[in-house]
Amino acid sequence: MTPDPLEQEMLRQQFRPLASNWRAEILATALQTQPGHFADSRGSKQVGLSGWGAWFWPHPAAWGALAVLWLTALGFDWVAAQPRLRSAEMTVVSPALNWSNWVEYQHAIPELTELEPEIVKAASRPRPAVERPRSQLRIPHNRWG
Amino acid sequence: MDSGYKLGRIYDEHASAVAAYLMNLTRNEADTRDLLQEVFVRLAKRPELLDDILSPRSFLLHLAHNLAMDRLRRLAVRERYAVQVRQQAEPLFAPADDPDTDAFRHALATALAGLPVEQRSVVHLKLWEGLTFEVIAQLLEIPPNTAASRYRYALDKMRTQLRPLYEEIR
Question: Is B73 near chain A, with CB under 8 Å?
């Protein structure tokens, strides 16, 4: 189908050229959203920093206050941990002392085994009866008979 | 190839055509810029989109068309937008030194703005992109016959509007 003269005239008309500043702006925006942009783009450190800036920008005072709160809490925790650390240091037993205790225990084993019959005898002795209220006392049946 | 360079090359080759199409649909420079940016953002996010495409221009126009239609729908009520387009259309064509050419461009822009957006898109793709009705049909996701009939209806309307001026300045 060949265009008629009016179509040809329409075809000849030139559209408005693109604004020259669009190219840089559009391509920069497009490249920022590209996957792996942070990894391979030039000045990735700068982009990373600006990313952090974007994160913290909305409420800088709130973020700052939160940071101060955290540091204060950490400080308190550190101060409170000092006495505990000191006492823990004091109760630490040296390995040499542990070894000597163990040797002593080994020597004491025969004595302990000799004592065993006495311990068993004491354990098998009947317990003394517990005093009960009169209402709970059991009376044998044959007592009335 | 560096993706920035590749994207830059695509911009240099096709951005003008895509922007002209978007401008013809929206008649709003800010919308055109936003939509053109959206096209390139999508391309940057998924650069593999263009790998198996035979005609990058058609693909970009397809993407731009869908984005523009979404925008027009969101702006709600295409009719109201169309009225707005007719009343506050931004210049579509470059200003010409010759007053007759300038007058014709102005009349042409007004006539185009008076068309429904579906007809306007077919006229643009047929006339200024030189696409066949088959390609236009694929691009706009309509049957080829519909594309052809939309073009005929649109051209009849425009002839009625433009012929007196065209005859006068010829």
Answer: no
